[in-house]
Amino acid sequence: MFPKLISIGTFFIPTYGTLIALAFLAGLWVTVRLAKSVGLDPEKITNLAVYCALGGLLGAKLLMFAFDYKRYAEHPGEIFSLATLQAAGVFQGGLVLALLFAVFYMRRAGLPFLATADAFAPGIAIGHAIGRIGCFAAGCCWGTECDRPWAVTFRNPDASELVGVPLGVPLHPAQLYEMSSEAILFALLYVLYRRPHRAGMILGTYLTLSSAARFVIEFFRYHEQALPFGGPLSITQWIALGLCGLGIFVLVRSSAGRSLVTPPVTAS
Fold first, then answer.
1. Residue 88 per-residue DSSP state
2. Residues 159-209: pLDDT tens digits?
3. CA 216 – CA 210 distance, rounded (Å)
4. From CA 177, how far away is CA 132, in angstroms rounded?
5. DSSP 3-state helix, strand, coil percentages of the chain (rounded to 5)?
6. Which of 15, 258, 9 has the alpha carbon at shortest distance from 133?
7. What's the pTM?
8. Which three-class secondary structure state does DSSP give residue 87?
């Protein structure tokens, strides 16, 4: 659609990269605001957010390389290409590695895991939503062919050159499907967080609903890699099922908790 925000000769600022930066800042602002409302140290929360963002970017790229290992093995130079830099990667890979980074840092910093993760969940959702707008602008993570009235057709040759999206073909706007689901999820999580809740409830709700939405949306996504196990599900869908199960487990454990987290009416 609009992969280059500003272009001067051969130099350009990618729209995707700009929106990813905005996504991080928006998510960080929401997270720090919510964390402060329940007495968590904002400096530690900010440090944790930076480490998780770096881990998330690394995890998303690593899983993307794993999915297309044959292509990168045959053309290793593509690992450092602009197209690879522009690609969003696989969100689940980023989420898993970010969670591992988070567990390690929270233990070192003495932050309560569930309460901290709850504060992060709405910020992750809104950041994910903004990031998918970046995907749509770049043309990556495109959908399968679509004959519905809301189908989108990419025509910008820069988008095709950078990420490989097919031009002139009506496609499912899979990026917007996920953007919409994450934006709605953010609104839900934010409202739930501002009400009395048991530690872990916000995290469990996020993992369950976000993964369930991703599982469904994957049916409308184009996949270059072969489906595993000879079945109808992609690797991403199997990961989504695992994360959904983890979310349900967290919700069940949370419901058995005794103490309630009660944020003030107005967060400072």
1. -
2. 888 888 999 999 999 999 999 999 999 999 999 999 999 999 999 999 999
3. 10
4. 9
5. 70, 5, 25
6. 15
7. 0.83
8. coil
